[in-house]
Design a protein that fits this description.
The complex is a heterodimer of chains A (about 450) and B (about 280). Chain A has about 450 residues and is α/β, with parallel strands linked by helices. Chain A has 15 helices and 17 strands. Chain A is globular. Chain B has 2 domains: about 55 residues, 3-methyladenine DNA Glycosylase II, Chain A, domain 3 (Orthogonal Bundle), CATH 1.10.15; about 180 residues, Alpha-Beta Plaits (2-Layer Sandwich), CATH 3.30.70.20. The C terminus of chain B is likely disordered. Classes of the chains: A alpha/beta (about 450), B alpha+beta (about 280).
């Protein structure tokens, strides 16, 4: 009997159209626009100048604070300008515009195996910090912060997230099938970084090839166990994954470290291996380009800063009946309004939605069927929270644990009245979060 | 005993004992409230809009009476007249303030701004803003979902679907600030109403560079700075490619309006064709 998390969850059609296409490189773009805020936290500070010639992997944005991350150049070339640039959702971020010279002179410092074998926990975390690694599952939280839990929370287990519960996306799956050894190397390094003996790699059972590949690669590694999971969305959520694999429950408002676990994505583990052993910082990632009507859905290794339109072009271009382009997966992704924007570290997929699926259906009245309550993986009452958000009752929202919402969208998905539940919950959560934060600063 | 008599006796007795108890308790735990609070509350408009910063008119009245000073306390709806009446009644001094009105710092109507995407989520600006920058390329301007219209208790804001942005009725607007709070982009500002309702303001919130801004919206401020040079009173400042007119310093000469190449500075309620000399004399 396969494991899974206990509360709620849904089973959307998997639609893993690109599961069989190998990860391929895409042709070089004419210009790379690398944003300096590709992570949660303070934007990086630019440390190159206009007109400067830079090497591939050179540092271009320096981490500005504890919760921040370094940014490196994905190509060698000249800095055309440093200016504001609109991201896929129309908001401006300071970005570095790089015209590539096609030479790709690299600036990297690979370590010999003797040196890597002796690295201490602090040194590994230092390299991860320098390489600008962030959580590649989509949340882009700086990895080094996650690897340094508070002192009063002893950690005994590393959990590697290969669930990839989002429909359509196959980037993690392909990475696990094609680079299992590298991922295991990365997992070993992460285990050393946080001083744990046990690591679990959790993979949903709809990826048998990935499970086989990783089991083979981990055969001689001690303490690493591959755990197949029953397919259910949102298994990839940290709290759900910990519940499914280890049967531990993260308390409301608590960190995974409070139950002794640190969760990292498989792609993050892969990036850790590249950073520590190959000396290459995080400048590229695997992106799934997919869609029901796309002629060649596929997985591409994309340097950060590549225009989205170029990535779509590599996958055969936009079909004529396209109405919406979603960045991320269909459940948690956001629709893009600007295709001139460029890829960043958190972009796991580009989903091209044809006309027939694009628009929302008209919202009807709530019929109190409680489907959303059954579907909520956090055990919340989405219909109630959404209503309270509409009424702006922030006190009750806090009591109803709105801050526990992981914004997985299961409630909106199952709602038979097509109510925009998550939209309202999100705004209630934002406001309530701001109120709690201001209360905390006032108390100090 | 006759059941009727016993029933009357029991019920009557219970009633008398309860009444006595209630009387004693009411006496012992009597809350004495300043009768002036009721009187002050009657002077207030009773809209309970929260524009004063307190939760409703009674709370404001209690605070005015309780604190013993009117400093920093003002009912924007009632204005100077109400505050003066309260001050006289309480024997305190009221601060006078010029009346204000809400203005929308955006002129990006459907004609000026091209829609480049379609938003089909719930009609709420706050929700739309969380999802993305909006249906047009301008990430600063009005989203046109009408959160301010819903927030207004005085029916002063109307959303004309033809124009796509709200219009504010200065007669009805009480400057309570509910719309300014409801706007996720904070593009509604409370400005001085001005003599004869005349005021001059920059109807734009776009911080993009000129070339970019004008591409996004024909009515956008391009940050050229001509108005700054034209202003004889140093009332205009240019920050981050956007001009701002300080209404404390502005003397309504409207030189900036003529100088603005994109006509994003709005002068409202002025007579149609004023003679320049007259204006200068007024300054």
């Amino acid at each position: 009997m396969l494991k899974t998390f206990r509360k709620g969850g849904i089973h959307p059609p998997e639609n893993k159209l690109s599961a069989l296409s190998k990860i391929t490189d895409i042709p070089q773009s004419k210009e790379y626009v690398v944003s300096l805020s590709q992570h949660i936290g303070a934007p990086a500070q630019c440390c190159v100048e206009k007109g400067e010639h830079i090497a591939k992997y050179q540092l271009i944005g320096k981490s500005a604070g504890f919760v921040s991350a370094n940014i490196h150049s994905p190509v060698s070339g000249t800095v055309r300008k440093i200016d504001k640039f609109k991201n896929a959702f129309g908001f401006e971020t300071t970005s570095v515009f790089i015209t590539p010279d096609g030479q790709n002179d690299e600036e990297r410092h690979p370590l010999t195996s003797e040196v890597t074998a002796k690295l201490s926990s602090k040194e590994i975390i230092g390299i991860i910090d320098n390489a600008g690694i962030v959580g590649l599952g989509g949340a882009t939280f700086p990895t080094k912060v996650k690897l340094m839990p508070p002192d009063n929370m002893p950690v005994d287990t590393l959990l590697i997230n290969g669930a990839e519960c989002e429909p359509y996306l196959t980037n993690d799956q392909r990475l696990m099938e094609e680079c299992p050894e590298e991922i295991i190397e990365g997992v070993k390094l992460l285990m050393r970084a946080i001083n744990v003996e046990k690591a679990y790699i959790a993979i949903e059972s709809n990826k048998p090839e990935a499970i086989k590949a990783l089991e083979k690669a981990a055969a001689h590694a001690t303490g690493i166990k591959i755990t197949p999971l029953k397919v259910k969305y949102p298994q990839g959520g940290e709290k759900q994954l910990i519940d499914a694999v280890l049967n531990r429950q993260v308390p409301s408002g608590g960190l995974p470290a409070s139950v002794g676990v640190i969760v990292q994505n498989v792609a993050t583990a892969y990036a850790v291996k590249q950073a520590v052993i190959d000396g290459t910082p995080l400048t590229e990632r695997v992106i799934t380009v997919t869609g029901p009507d796309l002629p060649h859905p596929g997985n591409y290794r994309v340097p950060i800063g590549t225009p989205i339109s170029d990535i779509i072009e590599a996958a055969g271009g936009l079909p004529e009946n396209t109405q919406k382009v979603v960045i991320g997966g269909p459940m948690m992704g956001k629709a893009a309004s600007n295709l001139n924007a460029t890829a960043n570290k958190g972009m796991s997929g580009i989903l091209i939605v044809p006309k027939r699926y694009a628009m929302r259906q008209k919202a009807e009245n709530c019929v109190r069927c409680a489907s959303c309550v059954s579907a909520c993986p956090m055990g919340l009452e989405p219909y109630l929270i959404a209503r309270l958000s509409e009424l702006k009752d922030y006190k009750r929202l806090e009591e109803e644990r709105v801050m526990d919402c992981i914004e997985c969208g299961s409630c909106s998905y199952v709602c038979i009245s097509h109510r925009p539940l998550l939209d309202y919950i999100r705004i209630g959560k934002n406001k309530t979060g701001a109120i709690i934060k201001s209360r905390k600063t006032n108390n100090k | 005993m006759n059941p009727i008599i016993s029933a009357v006796a029991v019920l009557g007795g219970t009633g008398i004992i309860s009444a006595a108890l209630l009387y004693i308790v009411a006496r012992k735990f009597k809350v004495t409230e300043d009768p002036r609070i009721d009187d002050v509350e009657k002077m207030l408009p009773g809209a309970n809009c929260g524009g004063c910063g307190y939760s409703g008119c009674r709370d404001f009245a209690a605070n005015c009476v309780g604190s013993g000073t009117l400093e920093g306390r003002r009912c924007p709806v009632g204005g100077d007249a109400t505050m003066k009446a309260i001050a006289e009644y309480l024997g305190l001094k009221a601060e006078t303030e010029k009346p204000k009105v809400a203005v929308l710092k955006c002129n990006g109507s459907c004609m000026a701004r091209k829609h480049t995407s379609v938003y089909d989520g719930p009609r709420s600006c706050a929700i739309e803003r969380i999802i993305y920058a909006g249906e047009t390329d301008c990430a600063y301007g009005c989203l046109g979902c009408g959160d301010c219209v819903n927030a207004c208790l005085f029916d002063a804001i109307k959303l004309d679907p033809e124009i796509g942005i709200p219009t504010i009725d200065d007669e009805r607007c009480t400057a309570c600030g509910a719309c300014a709070d409801a706007c996720p982009d904070k593009i509604i500002e409370l400005r001085y109403k001005g003599p004869k309702n005349r005021r001059v303001y920059v109807a734009c919130s776009n911080h993009d560079k000129g070339a970019e801004a004008i591409k996004e919206c024909k009515a956008a401020c391009i940050g050229c700075g001509k108005c700054v040079k034209a202003c004889p009173f140093d009332a205009i400042t240019l920050t981050d490619n956007l001009a701002y007119i300080d209404d404390e310093k502005c003397r309504l000469c409207r030189k900036c309006v003529d100088a603005c190449p994109v006509k994003c500075i709005k002068a409202v309620n002025f007579p149609d064709k004023p003679s320049i000399s007259k204006e200068e004399a007024a300054c």
